[in-house]
Design goal:
The chain has about 400 residues and is of the alpha/beta class. The protein contains 13 helices and 21 strands. It has 2 domains: about 5-175, Rossmann fold (3-Layer(aba) Sandwich), CATH 3.40.50; about 190-285 and about 300-404, CoaB-like (Rossmann fold, 3-Layer(aba) Sandwich), CATH 3.40.50. An 8-stranded mixed β-sheet has the order 12-11-8-13-16-17-19-20, sandwiched between helices. It has a 5-stranded parallel β-sheet with strand order 2-1-3-4-5, with helices on both faces. Strands 6-7 form a two-stranded antiparallel sheet. It is elongated, with a radius of gyration of 26 Å. The two termini are about 25 Å apart. Bound molecules: cytidine-5'-triphosphate.
Amino acid sequence: MSIKGKKIVLGITGSIAAYKTPHLVRLLIKAGADVRVVITDAAAHFVSALSLSTVSKHPVLASVSDGANWNNHVELGLWADAMVIAPCSANTLAKLAGGLCDNLLAAVYLSARCPVFIAPAMDEDMWIHPATKANIAKVKSYNNKIIPVAHGELASGLVGEGRMAEPEDIIKYLSSYFSDDHKPLAGINALVTAGPTFERIDPVRFIGNFSTGKMGIAIAEALAEKGALVTLVLGPTHEQTSHKGITTIKVETGDEMYNASMAVFNDCQLAVLTAAVADYKPAMRSEVKIKKQDGDLNLLLTKNKDILAALGKIKVPGQTLVGFALETNNELENAQLKLESKNADMIVLNSLSDTGAGFGHDTNKVILLMRNGEKIPFPLMTKKEVAGAITEQIIKLRYATETV
Ligand code: CTP
């Protein structure tokens, strides 16, 4: 099932429907999710933390200072692939709409970079009140998903709309969201540069590097798998892809890669520049083969255009720019400098000093540096897994900036 392997924070608020949440936790776990529960004080009147910790197999968190440190709200917000607030009372809905933050649940919500699903639960009169309607519209405008309320008997004894969706229906909603049919990057045009560039000296010689383009192709495929329409600007390499979501433009030189990238970037919402562009090219390209002479040959090199920096300059809100940094020394410091100087939203740092990482290998070990100072390290993984991790982070980033 599609919920399998997802990390889910379940937020429970004060509503009679909270009594159904141990069952919801059970169903989530049965579907393969890893669940952490956060409750409000009011929720504790309707469901016991002991039941929830027993079924979720983890302690239930209730206050910002729970756990070993105070910033568990940020950690949970970053950890989660999805946050589900079920039941969501009228009061909590108003807090979410207004950005209030007077309990752990609200703090996790504000810190969450993942999709948030809200299952409201209240009496029909509260549900149809214009204030509630306005709050629903507001939280929807923040990209949250509302799990439709059900019709039926309410706690007041009245029959009407406002019941929390049944746990089984919440699972169905989440499954369909996470199913392969729902692609979080659907409708996104993405540019990926990959491979080396060859800078010709004469018709038979060039300056190049050992890049194979494997990492970039893996990223192009991971983005396409999530629904993006990818233009892959690929330097000279034997690696290729036949993924149907990818259009490949083959180039040879840094100038050609620059021109191809500039031509498509305006129409893209995302660019991931993995190419190892030669920083320098011969100042003159000889049209004929340079003959051997006595003594040394001096080759004058001139700078290639920096594609990442150029895109960083023309980037507009709604465009996400990701660069790579391959470093051999002062890795974090240099990567941080690249993030800022090239105006990227994320830099993927790989170090040649890590065994199994870098050019030609099928594995890579990276640290993601984010614009807010966050650094996310990953263990040695296959390039496909690294591409998946980078793609997940891109999706989270785009949700956080409400651009999806
Ligand atoms: N890059 C680019 N165009 C260039 C050089 C680099 O688009 N002419 C991009 C790479 O694709 C990568 C990032 O910039 O995403 C960093 O590349 P790297 O070669 O590590 O950094 P440089 O800026 O070239 O700096 P240095 O070589 O001094 O480390």
